[in-house]
Design brief:
Metallo-B-lactamas; 325 residues; Metallo-beta-lactamase, Chain A; alpha/beta; 37% helix; seven-stranded mixed β-sheet; RibonucZ/Hydroxyglut_hydro; NDM-1-like; Beta-lactamase domain-containing protein
């Protein structure tokens, strides 16, 4: 019986009010304590959004913040990846002409978009306030392989570039980072977190370290992580990238040790929790993400290359198995 299972995130009822942060001229982050971050860039003729928030209701708050600094039309949305908690607010922006994502993200939406949406609504009730307004899945109107550039018009004597790059598999199969070379600002999506639990339930954990190395090679001077405070300066950005890698390494190492010892998924979870709590247990959402992370690591290390689709029922069964709640 799983109907009454309650996730760790269900007890998170404190509303977070995101703060608008100017990161560079005409570049802004919309930054929460530890809810998903998003942002935007003001170009010569339009505004480009980086993700959109979980629901139209929450996206309207984002829109109101944008309107405190510009009245230019919002024409383009960039999706860093597909998780419903980041993209389902898109319908609040009625001037949008293009929604851009990587080919991997487009495939993700086609194959598991509805299941992910149903799952996340159950996992994050606070973030999906107003869920009834969502008209359907958010699909890109344009997708790309590798990288593409958006040219935003004159800025300091040059045509400003917003470069979208799919640097490799990691948090999902289609992660995109948004990079402004002229000012060194990077929007990482959930490839990088800042002292927040790293969700790997849909990840390619073994590949993620290489993707993080590619992010580090950009030498960002300002980094908007998926969750957590904005990182300032190359050293701080590099530290957060390293901590994300350390979290994932600890996860894989512990689960690998458990599998070698013949432990079940539950045994691997107990081992991994005990190993990781001293260093990472105080991070926001750690207790929520860890069961999903261990489950995916357990699968990946036993040869299951692609993440198994999460459904609301599978979520509840896992939580009951590992947490006994």
């Amino acid at each position: 019986m799983t109907a009454n299972v309650s996730f760790a995130s269900a007890s998170d009822t404190r509303e977070q009010k995101p703060q608008l942060r100017e990161l560079a001229p005409n570049v802004y982050g919309y930054i929460s304590d530890f809810d998903p971050n998003c942002g935007f860039v003001v170009g010569d003729e339009q505004v480009v959004l980086i993700d959109t928030r979980p629901t139209p209701r929450m996206a309207r708050d984002f829109l109101a913040a944008i309107r405190t600094v510009t009245d230019k039309p919002i024409r383009t949305i960039v999706l860093t990846h597909y998780h419903a908690v980041r993209v389902m607010g898109a319908s609040a922006f009625d001037e949008v002409e293009a929604i851009i994502a990587s080919n991997g993200t487009l495939d993700w939406i086609r194959t598991r978009g509805q299941a992910d949406f149903d799952s996340e609504v159950g996992r994050f009730p606070r973030l999906f306030a107003g869920v009834e307004e969502i008209p359907g899945l958010t699909f890109p109107t344009q997708s790309f392989h590798g990288e593409m550039s958006l040219w935003l018009g004159p800025h300091r004597g040059q045509n400003r570039e917003l470069r979208l790059m799919a640097l490799g598999r990691g948090h999902s199969s289609g992660d995109t980072v948004a990079w402004l070379p002229d000012c060194g600002v990077l929007f990482s999506g959930d490839v990088v977190e800042n002292h927040c639990g790293v969700y790997a339930g849909d990840a390619y954990i073994g590949d993620w370290a290489g993707t993080l190395d590619a992010v580090l090679a950009l030498k960002p001077r300002v980094l908007v992580p998926g969750r957590g405070a904005v990182l300032q300066g190359e050293a701080e950005c590099a530290e957060a990238i390293g901590l994300t890698k350390a979290f994932l390494g600890a996860l894989l190492d512990s689960v690998k040790t458990g599998i070698a010892a013949g432990e079940t998924l539950k045994g691997c979870f107990a081992r991994t929790e005990a190993a990781m709590v001293p260093r990472f247990g105080s991070w926001p959402v750690f207790q929520h993400v860890l069961p999903f992370d261990v489950s995916r690591a357990y699968d990946e290390l036993r040869g299951i290359e692609h993440p198994v689709v999460w459904t609301a029922e599978r979520d509840r069964e896992l939580w009951q198995t590992l947490r006994g709640e």
